[in-house]
Write a structure and sequence with these properties.
alpha/beta, 10 helices, disordered C terminus, DNA-binding response regulator
Length: about 230
Amino acid sequence: MPDQPGDTSPAPTRVLVVDDEALVRAGFRALVGSAPDLEVVGEASHGADAVRQARALRPDVVLMDLRMPVMDGLEATRYLAGEPDGPRVLVVTTFDHDEYVFQALRAGASGFVLKDTPPERLLDAIRVVAAGESLLAPSVTTRLVSAFVRQAPTAPTPDDARLAGLTEREREVLALVARGRSNAELAAELVVEVTTVKTHVSRLLAKLGARDRAQLVVVAYESGLVAPSGRADG
């Protein structure tokens, strides 16, 4: 139905579904299509096709499986994250290999959900990522730290050069973001307004050259600001 004159309702969020299993793609298409504010604009069965379709269809969010033939989701995510004004990537995983999820975040994914996530939570996850936020629950963050520690060749130190330009408050905010805190939770813990938290996060993104909160988490782990125990160092 065409828009009525003066209709100011926002356009639906455009979603590209990427999975090598046709039944999974069909399920995601039906679920996403049931939400009036979301729209599936295409499907892809492997990473190379996902990159081609993303360039042609310009989706806002890509639902990305990790293990696929031809090109896996990790490499596809890296390509898409490097595109000017590229889509947000939401990884959908079974969590069989935690290290792949961490690598996907390093490659530029904005977050991830499990394939058995309740339908409404998956729809909310798409909305969150489309809005420019990242999706990182505290329980998942703990697993990512463990995955990083397993693959890290040397122990990181909290005097990492990337942290040199941060204020003490910014380091505190970064550590809390790395533990999966939302803006509202950060505001409550720091006893400040949510708008103040948003300002701190924006400054962290700019100073660290991070695309979104997911990338802030990666920096916090790699720099050693957040230790495997969840304790903030230094």
